[in-house]
Design a protein that fits this description.
Blueprint (H helix, E strand, L loop, with lengths): L3 H13 L9 E6 L13 H18 L3 H7 L2 E11 L8 E11 L4 E9 L2 E14 L2 E3 L1 H7 L11 H15 L3
Antiparallel strand pairs: 1-3, 2-5, 3-4, 4-5, 5-6
């Protein structure tokens, strides 16, 4: 089940803050709840990705993209994820979801998400995403213009480039 209460909390918190209009990082403090658990009694691997949606949602609010999304009727689409699990998160454990935009190309934004409990990294992921509207993908340049970003371009990290290359190979070998 989608974490609607957590999403509402992120939205309410974001609306109380003034958007920064820059590419800023997000840090959401959370706790592992019983509905996050799998049969091994630690956080389900799919839940990590679901919670990372909330990190990207918070980034959209913080950078001031939410008004453009509503006005233009854009909607976000995840185009893939690469995740590494380092250690489990157990019931009621507190953790922080740190999210940031780590680069982009003409089509994709690349996000890094780290789930940290105490001083230990539980999981880290790269996620690529874009926005769509009326059957077209919104170019990253248009997204950045909508928030008034005039800083330097940020190239995706080498790990994202290598992942994209591997993704292309995977498509070539698909049945």
């Amino acid at each position: 089940m989608y974490p609607f209460f957590r999403a509402g909390r992120v939205l309410a918190g974001g609306l109380r803050r003034h958007p920064m209009g820059t590419l800023t990082a997000s840090a959401l403090k959370m706790r592992v709840w019983p509905n996050d658990l799998d049969t091994n009694l630690h956080m389900n691997n799919g839940r990590y990705l679901t919670l990372m949606d909330l990190g990207r949602f918070d980034l959209m609010i913080k950078c001031g993209l939410l008004p453009a999304i509503v006005r233009q009727r854009w909607y976000p689409v995840a185009g893939g994820a690469m995740i590494r699990f380092n250690r489990p998160l157990h019931a009621f454990e507190k953790f922080t979801l740190a999210s940031d935009i780590c680069g982009w190309d003409a089509r994709w934004l690349y996000f890094r998400h780290d789930l940290v409990s105490g001083d230990k990294l539980a999981a880290t992921a790269l996620v690529r995403g874009l926005f769509r509207c009326q059957g077209r993908s919104i170019p990253v340049a248009e997204l950045l213009a909508s928030i008034g970003y005039d800083g330097p371009a940020i190239d995706p990290p080498a790990s994202a480039v290598n992942w994209s290359d591997a993704d292309k190979l995977m498509l070539q070998t698909a049945p």
